[in-house]
Amino acid sequence: MTDLPPEAFGPNAAQPAPDATPAEGEAEAKAEVGVGPWEGEWPEGEHWDPDLLRDGDRRNVVDQYRYWKHDSIVADLDSKRHDFHIAIENWQHDLNIGTVVRTANAFLAKEVHIIGRRRWNRRGAMVTDRYQHVRHHPTVEDFVQWAEAEGLAVIGIDIFPDSVPLETYDLPQKCVLVFGQEGPGLTPEVHDAAVATLSIEQFGSTRSMNAASAAAIAMHAWVRRHVFNQKVS
Question: Are the beta carbons of 190 and 156 closer than 8 angstroms?
Fold first, then answer.
């Protein structure tokens, strides 16, 4: 061990230069989110938001929708939403729902359905619930009746003895993918109502995966099948 002189310690110790690279673990300035005020002559069109053009747009939206009015963004998304819906059971205030809503927005699901308790933690949604239609069903029976009236196949995602692999199942174009809450999974009522229950193949030691992660995988499977026309074998 190298001996250091006394002056290397205490108030007279040498300090790093002002422009020195921050030490590991030291907080760094966060990157600015979004864009500032519009530069130059303002564009014409009813979808532009004058407040955002003037003050800047710091929202979590893709560049295509920068400076757009909120209602105009939703209307444009509505014109091209996909044919699948997402449903998640919420009997014990499941904390995954916010993340599921955010992912549903990313994959442009038609609607997200909350079965059970109306209240859910919106923090994980990162404000994407403002752009995603969310519908509440107080009971499984109410949800199933709605799905049948809409001509949607109810597809459960969970591990049951009769589950078939998601990877080899040909998902119907018009369907609602249903997920149970973390821990107990799908209720027997949803399992009985589903035309099929699908499992996601796992290769590690854990028995199950996080509900929000499973939802993302299932949504992407639908997109691969019906947006990119990738047939299953």
Answer: yes
Residue located via tokens 């403002």: 130
* Residues 172-194 pLDDT 10s: 999 999 999 888 899 999 999 99
Query: Residue type for 137, please?
Result: H
Residue with tokens 């009522």: 189
CB 155 within 8 Å of CB 194: yes
Q: Could you tell me where the beta strands, DSSP code E, fall in the chain?
A: 84-90, 112-116, 134-137, 153-157, 164-165, 175-179, 196-199
The gap from C-alpha 141 to its chain's centroid, in whole angstroms, comes to 26
Picking from 93, 87, 49, 90, the residue whose alpha carbon sits closest to that of residue 67 is 49
Contact indicator for 175, 85 with CB cutoff of 8 Å = yes
- Other Cβ atoms within 10 Å of 117 Cβ, number: 16
